[in-house]
Design a protein that fits this description.
355 residues, alpha/beta, FAD/NAD(P)-binding domain, 2 domains, five-stranded parallel beta sheet, four-stranded parallel beta sheet, 10 helices, globular, FAD/NAD-binding_dom, FAD/NAD-bd_sf
């Protein structure tokens, strides 16, 4: 680790894509402290491939020390913030000149890479041992998992239950219909506008809110995870949270009302799709601003937004994509994402060798 004497200190809370890219960008310019409850960064949009192919996780899980060797890694959760310090669950008190909150969603992942890979192996074995599988949730996670299982384990009976009126409600209806049609062709049974009481399972039968019975040997819960901001409600930033628990930021990605506190990624109230590539753009803006500030310049970068694009993988070779107002499906968007799932690109961004 290079000497940090005389450098401004930047504390980054959260080791997802936004926090990790920012730590990578600032580690040679400032004294970076990265606070994260786990030892590694996970390429989260590739996690569903890891369920059916656990060996893939060797590429999607990257220890923080690999891409940020000059940063201080604090493996704990942040619990409190003052105007000058951050306190962690393991009792550390870390002062800062600049603070960046990038805590994303509340994800109770395993502490080490080894433990995370073991979890994926257990999930794969659960699929292998089952004849029928229930997936609860028809957002991108549920749809992609159904696609992965139906392609890699075509003999399994897959049922997907979603409480909404259509799949993939975060994109347009045309993309939703294409995904629905593709899953139907793979013999995935789709039940809409119903929920499942997972505690109601008796003798291998689950019951839906509409009175249907579903036979399944196991289930996967694929519903949205809450924003990881509940801990902020007891801090000085409690008035900076909107009614959805997101931090309100200005055009420079600074938390409103504060000159030296920024927020990036899904925890912000920026009106756009919550996508990894946009979180990286947030980090790019903040990195430039902090570099400018530590060099005595007051000019801050403004976040101008990025292209509104969503690609949902459908197995290993196909996908459905919505790019602005255009929708496409099949092998073309599949070539864009579904083979490598942007893993090589992400590793390159972090300066880690592709394995």
């Amino acid at each position: 680790m290079v000497s940090s004497i005389g450098r401004k200190r930047v504390v980054i809370i959260g080791g997802g894509i936004a926090g990790s890219v920012l730590a990578k960008s600032l580690q040679d310019h400032t004294d970076v402290y990265l606070i994260d409850p786990k030892e590694y960064f996970e390429i989260s949009w590739a996690s569903l491939r890891c369920i059916v192919e656990p060996a893939f996780a060797e590429r999607t899980l990257i220890n923080h020390s690999e891409y940020a060797p000059n940063a201080h890694i604090i493996t704990s959760a942040a619990t409190s913030i003052t105007e000058t310090e951050v306190t962690t669950a393991n009792g550390r008190v870390i002062s800062y000149d600049y603070l960046v909150i990038a805590s994303g969603h509340d994800d109770k992942s395993e502490f080490t890479k080894k433990e995370r890979i073991h979890h994926y192996k257990q999930d794969q074995q659960k699929i292998k041992s089952a004849s029928s599988i229930l997936i609860v949730g028809g957002g991108p996670v549920g749809v992609e998992l159904a696609g992965e299982i139906s392609v890699d384990f075509p003999d399994k009976k897959v049922t997907l239950v979603h409480r909404g009126s259509r799949l993939l409600e975060f994109v347009g209806e045309k993309a939703s219909k294409k995904a629905h049609k593709w899953l139907n062709k793979k013999n995935v049974e789709i039940i809409l506008e119903q929920s499942v009481n997972l505690n109601s399972k008796t003798n291998g039968v689950y019951h839906t809110s509409g009175g249907q019975s579903i036979i399944a040997d196991c289930h996967f819960l694929c519903v949205g995870k809450p924003i990881a901001s509940s801990w902020l409600k007891d801090t000085m930033l409690h008035n900076c949270l909107d009614n959805k628990g997101r931090l309100m930021v200005d055009e420079n990605m600074r938390v409103k009302g504060y000159r030296n506190i920024f927020a990036v990624g899904d925890i912000t109230d920026v009106k756009e799709m919550k996508q990894g590539y946009l979180a990286q753009m947030h980090s790019g803006v903040v990195a430039k601003s902090i570099k400018s500030l530590v060099n005595g310049k007051e000019k801050l970068e403004a976040y101008k937004g990025g292209p509104q694009m969503a690609i949902v993988s459908l197995g290993r070779k196909e996908a459905v994509a919505q790019i602005s107002s255009m929708t496409m499906s099949g092998c073309l968007p599949g070539k864009m994402k579904s083979g490598d799932l942007f893993v090589s690109k992400t590793r390159k961004t972090l300066g880690v060798k592709s394995t």
